[in-house]
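Worked example

This section walks through a single chain of length 701. The input is the sequence exactly as stored; nothing has been trimmed or padded.
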Amino acid sequence: MKTLVSLCLVPLVTLSAFAFGQASSYQGPQITSQVSVSDCCATVANSVMSGPSVSVSSPFATLSDYVNANIGTGRASTSGTTNSSSSSGASFTATATASTTPPEDPHVGALRAGAGQSGTYYQFVLDQPSYVEMDATITPSYTGSYTDIYGSFGATASLRGGSPGGGVIQGVNTNGVNVGFGVSATSGSASNAEVTLHTGVVLLPAGTYALIGAVTASADTGQTASANLTVTISITPTPPGPIGSITCLQGSGTITSPGGMPQPIVEGMPVYLGDVIESTSGSHVCVLLNDDTTFTLSSNTRLTVDDYVYDPNNVQSKARYNFFSGAFRYVSGLVGKQANPDIQIHTPTSGIGVRGTELIADVTDQSTTVYLDEGEVTATPLNGTLTDYLAQTVINLDDNTATTSPFSQSDYDNLKQQIEGTPTDTQPPVISCGSAPTAWQSANVSIACSASDAGSGLANPTDASFILSTSIASGMETPNASTASHQVCDKASNCATAGPISGIMIDMKPPAIAISAPASNTTYLVNASVAANYQCQDGGSGVQTCAGPVANSSKIDTTSSGAHTFVVNATDNVGNATSASTSYSVTYGVCLLFDNTRSVKSGSTVPIRISLCDASGNDVSTAIVVVHALSLSQVSTSASSTLENSGSSNPDNNFRFDSTVGTSGSYVFNLQTTGLTTGTYALAFAAGSDPAIHTITFQVR
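Given that input, the structure is written out below as tokens.
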């Protein structure tokens, strides 16, 4: 009798639903396992359950010792591990293992073992359109002394819409074929090859989805079979913006978004992650990505951008491009110029790692030829090893081998012309200028500008960077200055103009100062009360400081006789400075201490006594101030007379200071009138630093 052992195992894990930014809720993994051991006629051990793992084995207590000793042993087990589970996706590993040993008694039927694991591993709800991608690795193992149809293993995984029983989601795999969004691999008893599968990115609408997975293993007499399935599904929200644009089109082509319908290419239209870009026969398409990477697709060429992250700070930049067929020219942008660039170009036969490169590639299902003009690449045949290559060389790749051949610059240039065709450039250069300052400026402003042209190129290379400047003359101010303008043209005579940039506030004129008091060239008496009166005005940035010797409306200095200068300084808010001044004089008043209306007899001595007074008539005489007689003249005839003093009382014609007369003292000059004829006379004198010439009149008879 032949005994069959069959084993089936199912584990179940359930997670609560949570709300996150990508999948609004998710549940799982949920795993069901079944294991069994059977002989030819009946199941001798069986277990079906929900849980992470389960196993059964023989010999069994229900059988006699003789049977247990002679039918051999059978074991079956499953295990399930949740690697991660979140709103961003899930990763799980499931394993099924079955093994049996031959019986000691050849007349006794052997056992058969079987293990299986299946169920709704992960269910999620999308509240917005999202990109979904799945990877799976199936690792089988088989050993056995016998070969039998019963020894086998297998695994499968698929994404379904709505529920575990829904339809399989359709997508595009790495070979460009529209297939069910699922992976599977089954293998007979003789193969232990690992199977790695990857589905393309699918743009799923909002809704409910379920990831279904299963792994099985069965073993006949003397066999051990196992299968390990690891599945990872990732969910990414729809990208917020384009990763590039179509910059030129000759002929026609299409762009197909993940899960969408082909749309005709229009020059200037955006390119998004996962888009399939395809040129038709006789057409040429130019693609410019955000980091300035460029692709030029020749006739019947098909490209997808599977992954693209551009970080100007060089933290996480990377790019994955997939070319299915056709010829193209590639020029690295900023991602390729960063340290340790992470850029890969996949073709049906090989993988190419890019290191700041310019190349042309011709791709078919059977081969890839790379014409490396600049930089460095690594190339790996589908079933080969990685090799580094430097420019300039030609790399010939098929599924298994990579060879090189000589590079010809003329051949490369001819290929470049064939791929790019004769472009029609109808777009003017793109100009970008810095912003105008918003605050007042003390000098003319220069604004840096740059220009580029993705089509025919700039007609004048120096236009790649230029300056727009204002030209306000010194001493002028305006709240609305404008820069000059600058025209930039490309080689196809398309032109654009930068500027003028207006609304720029420039102040190159200092404030204006007006001084009303002290009035210019005015004479004030000592201690006169004169209030300062001055103003500062600025028609540009405004007055920042306006200051004189005293504050406005305060009294100016009249405490001392002599010449004085009143200076006002002013600055505006951008630092333009100026000053203005006015001159004035301070003089003494003269108070008479004699009766000058009484005439004196010619030949007599006239005691001329005075005091120096301030604006209020107060006596400010002091011995420090010298009063000096200057001249004597007859008023009616203006004829000068000899100035004589009596005796030696007024040496050097200086008035004698007498502290006994007057509040603060007085000055006396004994004037001798000998020889003076009848008339009115004026005595002129000066007092200290007083700039004024004072006169006193008296009568002679």
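What to look for: DSSP finds three helices and 52 strands in the chain.
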